[in-house]
Write a structure and sequence with these properties.
The complex is a heterodimer of chains A (306) and B (354). Chain A is of the alpha/beta class and 306 residues long. In chain A, the strands form 3 sheets. In chain A, strands 5-6-7-3-8-9 form a 6-stranded mixed β-sheet, sandwiched between helices. Chain A has a 4-stranded antiparallel β-sheet with strand order 11-12-10-13, with helices on one face. In chain A, strands 2-1-4 form a 3-stranded antiparallel β-sheet, with helices on one face. Chain A contains 11 helices and 13 strands. Chain A has 2 domains: 216 residues, Rossmann fold; 67 residues, YebC, transcriptional regulation domain (Alpha-Beta Plaits, 2-Layer Sandwich), CATH 3.30.70.980. Chain B is an alpha/beta fold and 354 residues long. Chain B folds into 2 domains: 234 residues, no CATH class; 86 residues, D-Maltodextrin-Binding Protein, domain 2, CATH 3.40.190. Helices cover 66% and strands 6% of the residues of chain B. Chain B contains 13 helices and 4 strands. In chain B, strands 2-1-3-4 form a 4-stranded mixed β-sheet. In chain B, helix 1 packs across helix 8 and helix 2 runs antiparallel to helix 6. The chains are: A alpha/beta (306), B alpha/beta (354). At the A-B interface, helix 2 and helix 3 of A face helix 1 and helix 7 of B.
Chain lengths: 306, 354
Amino acid sequence: MSELALRIHGLRKAFPKVVAVAGVDLEVARGEVFGLLGPNGAGKTTTLEMIEGLTVPDAGEIEILGQSWKRDGQQIRARIGVQLQSTSLFNKITVREALDLYGTYYPKARSTAELLDLVQLNDKAEAYHITLSGGQQQRLALALALVNDPELVFLDEPTTGLDPQARRGLWDVVRRMKAEGRTVLLTTHYMDEAEALCDRLAIMDHGQVIASGTPASLIAQLAIPSVVELTFDGAAPDPAAFSARLGETVEHRSDLWEIPTRDPKGLLPRILEIAEAAGVPYQQIHIRRATLEDVFLHQTGRSLRD
Amino acid sequence: MVMMIWRQFVMEWKLYSRDRMAMFWTFAFPVAMLLGFGVIFRGGGGPKLSIVYVEPAAPSPRDAALLKAMDEVQLKVMPLAPAEAEARWGRGETAAEVLADGEGYRLRLNSYLMAQGGAAAGLVNQAWLMAQARLNGAPEPKRIPVSVESPGGRKASNYAAFLLPGLLGLNLMSIGLFSVGMVNVSYREKGKFRRLAVTPLPKWIFLLGQVLQRLTISLAQALVLMTVGWLAFGIQNQGSYLDLLVVMVFGTACFMSFGFALSSFAETSESYAAIANLLFFPLMLLSGVYFTLDSAPRWLQHAVTALPLSPFLTTLRAVFNDGSGLAGHGLALAIVGAWALGAFLLAVRRFRWA
């Protein structure tokens, strides 16, 4: 049995107006939670849909659990679980009926009771799909992706649009998948989510992988491991003059300044001194370690949510 | 395999029965149409035509004779004072009015409502001829006797019996265009097919479950309409039930394939609804669902026989109302069958899941 859950090589897909995926290579080991990060339009979803067999690639190879779509399509479908970006079910199907029905599509299925427990939808088992909240619908979609006890699970932006509490709940489910030995490939544009969940990740932009590795290694690769942040009450003023006096780059965000640095301890007294002298009306100042968000910013020059 | 199809079929029925709008259009609406029109046209003819009679200041024997004769020719006479009659005319509610004019009368017809006004004017003239004959002391005029029969000579059925097969056909068309075509466009648009596509369920099983469910709906619908027709108006199938089933199967196959084929031409539910309605309403009005096209131009009458609904209804009425066999309706069935086959092939060629 192959040690790789997924191996893709030279994957390409062009649509009439845009090249969505421009040559992607990925390897995901069994038992790993792998994150595909990138802003909207980076090609994450198209990549995922080619891997899931929904979109036919223009070029490239996809090997899933040692099998290929050309020869073993039905077997692959039985072994993978998929949560699409928006799972559309029938409006008036109940949660229990949906889980029962989808279970019948597979050679082996987990019990509905077990799945309801897993995603904590027991009290909504008899509710129609259309009456569920966004978070509940996502949890149902997750349960449907697990209905066949899959070896490899694909989650396309599983927490988009959820409130913080619902996101934590979903994270717990993903962690349980990993504990059960499943391989998970998820896309997200939340950096904290990728850091919290993923063993390894790849950052995509303009249809290509621009960086990959463990979250820690990606951050370590960044030359500037810390960031000093000055927050303001309302819009942050133009930092040009301040930056010139300090002799460091100051990034201007909407309501804060960010000063990336290798030596936060040495820099902090100077920042305080100059800010005092220039009468900069900041509210708070703190030092944080660089995050994946900074990695992305550094690699692409733009923010993930742009 | 059979089990999988059965499960899809049962789930489709559950979902359908929970959709109140679909249930209304499928069952309540056709029954309401049948009962409504059946009662309005119960006598076999249209409702009584009405005429406004402008009352003269001093009624003469001539006026009395006309009023009596108008009553005899089944006109609904509304006597109004001149001012009231003028106000009613001004509001556009009057189709025809008759008023004294010198030695005789004058008829005033509303140009918008010539179908009713013209017919009423004919009856007023007939009444006036009778009244004149009586006033002149001539022998009582004789009328031409009228007999009402069904075209097949089987039974003197009423309008409800004409309407019932029309509604059966309309239902099949609406199931095909909307319950099949519209539903599949929305499944594609909302990504329901995509969710199915990542499971090992063969897609044809999903579609077959859907088609079988729609078949049983149309059957259930036909049974409900026929039962209501029988209980309310005593309408019964005059032909063989096997022939009836054959005709219904041809129609169902035709309109379901039609829905599948058409659904492949629209990206969104909105654009599909526009296309479907564009076909639905002309076909409904031109194919003899509610009335025949006697007064339409000849070319139009010929043209609609090449479209699927008209030959289907002709055959269905021949079997259901007149007890005819299928032997004489080969061409009509062939036209319906050709549409079914053409639409089916087009659907197979063009149908897309995403």
